[in-house]
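Structure (tokenized):
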């Protein structure tokens, strides 16, 4: 009887092994997996969770969320190796955003060095009422935004998603766009027309009110396509999100 039970246990274990005789990582208890994940920056932690959930017979949704963690308000791909971020696909971004429950939790998204995506992977953000900042420049802070060749990130993919975010009483306050979008300067373009809609949203929500003098300023996003700052959300800090009018712009005490 003991021999029969022992043989049965060996058959069960063998069924969970791959061809090399090793058990799959998602067969481990959740505790050591979450312990390892605690040492990873958020993008790496979310990628770890996404890799486990995508495997055949992978983790349950509950355990997957434990690995992804609850501290998911800011996701900056500049926190991982540049070469790794450059290899991420839209499917990777989609899986990561779903793992962190981005539509309900994520407030800041910076796609630093994600030069291989079209934007289709941002679909999980559709209709978000909590996202505040999205940086599409694909470069780090204060880095040259010129990329050659032009990355595949696409207005056609992204603008319909952004439209679902700016409609209604959402939280979106700041957008930064890729340089090659801003270099195409036509008032007939989908990008220009989106900028007009975004400006109206900022105005409707009072987000162009100066934090110093409380006066309503000019439309925050520059629409004059002859200017070098066309398509940039001028006079609004991309970190603290405070907006100041032209008259107060020389006073940097606050």
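Design, position by position:
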């Amino acid at each position: 009887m003991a021999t029969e039970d022992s043989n049965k246990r060996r058959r069960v274990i063998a069924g969970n092994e791959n061809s090399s005789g090793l058990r799959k990582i998602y067969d481990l208890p959740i505790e050591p997996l979450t312990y390892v994940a605690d040492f990873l920056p958020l993008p790496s932690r979310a990628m770890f969770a996404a890799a486990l959930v995508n495997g055949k017979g992978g983790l349950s949704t509950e355990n997957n969320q434990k690995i992804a963690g609850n501290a998911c308000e800011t996701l900056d791909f500049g926190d991982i190796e540049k070469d790794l971020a450059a290899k991420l696909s839209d499917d990777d971004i989609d899986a990561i955003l779903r793992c962190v429950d981005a539509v309900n939790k994520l407030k800041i998204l910076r796609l630093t060095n994600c030069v291989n995506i079209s934007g289709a992977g941002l679909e999980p953000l559709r209709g978000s009422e909590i996202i505040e900042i999205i940086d599409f420049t694909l470069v780090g802070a204060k880095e040259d935004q010129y990329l050659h060749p032009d990355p595949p990130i696409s207005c056609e993919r992204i603008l319909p998603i952004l439209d679902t975010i700016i409609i209604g009483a959402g939280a979106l306050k700041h957008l930064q766009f890729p340089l090659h979008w801003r270099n195409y300067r036509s008032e007939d373009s989908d990008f220009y027309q989106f900028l007009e809609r975004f400006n109206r949203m900022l105005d409707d929500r009072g987000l162009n009110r100066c934090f110093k003098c409380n006066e309503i300023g000019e439309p925050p996003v520059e629409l004059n396509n002859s200017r070098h700052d066309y398509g940039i959300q001028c006079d609004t800090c991309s970190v603290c999100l405070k907006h100041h009018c032209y008259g107060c712009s020389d006073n940097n005490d606050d």
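Reviewer-requested clarification: The longest strand covers residues 74-76. The chain has a mean pLDDT of 85.
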